[in-house]
Amino acid sequence: MRLLNQSEVLDLLPMAECIPVMEEALASLSRGQVVLPLRPVMRIPGTHDVFAMMPAYSAALPVFGVKMITVFPGNHGTALDSHQGAVLLFDATTGTLAAMMDASSITAIRTAAVSAVATRLLARNDAATLALIGSGVQARTHLEAIALVRDLTAVRVFSRSWKHARAFAEWAGHELRIAVDVADSAEHAVRGADIVCTVTSSREPVLFGEWLEPGMHVNAVGASQPDARELDSAAVARARIFADRRESLVNESADYLVPMREGRISEQQVVAELGEILTGAARGRESRDEITLFKSLGLAVEDLAAAAHAFARAEREAVGADVSLGGLRPADGE
Description:
This protein has eleven helices and 16 strands. The protein is of the alpha/beta class. It has two domains: 2-106 and 300-322, ornithine cyclodeaminase, domain 1; 124-295, Rossmann fold. The strands form two sheets. Strands 1, 2, 3, 4, 5, 6, 7 and 16 form an eight-stranded mixed β-sheet that branches. An eight-stranded parallel β-sheet has the order 10-9-8-11-12-15-13-14, sandwiched between helices.
């Protein structure tokens, strides 16, 4: 088994390589090549913390696997990521455990890469102004990813912590050579933007329908549970909705379920999965003025494809540690 730590995964899975890997993973899902059970989630009593298991199989890959991850929102603003865990890969022919790798880096990179796919498919071609609500790990990877699919001329960030927003802006200028303005409110960040990414740990709306303007594209990323949402019902009602997977959307997303219960939207408002656009089975943006919304839930097939890509590179480049965990049948007579 090959063991890959966080820094090794970061080196093996650059964003520019992960974006096309996510396109293929989403397309394979729409082609019916993927087995993808809904993730079982165990909640830690008395907290908002969860432990989730995300298994996936894809006929397009030589491995299958599972991501086991904890989500502890209270880690935001500390030295620890809110998402921690491991991805395990198994050989699809022998069932042998082939690799174990850090899940925090996989999650951070593949989530933003999928948002970049959505932005490429759904945002206006001339979209150039990005608003980020949230300034944590996902804000960093989203800025990197969106800048790869659109020529950004202005970026604004808002965070409940001015200190964190300022640190994010300094990081972006130093690491990505992208100037970021710190907005004094979420509304001021959003007004006039072409692309909006919500990447928070909030359980209540941080983006409101009255702020949205014709032609905007929204990536709603931070909330992935039935009891947490980042968008109010008015924002969802104003948009044409796209999903990574419909089954996940209707079972796991409060951003969708709450306005559905309120009668503000209907099932027909969900236009397509991203994979359906990639395979030509559906169309994305149809006019300059429509508001498009990609609701990201995060799929195990995305983790599987990202981890498989990192593992293949690690094998070629001899990166990581080889660890023997057994699996061999005892010799005769033993």
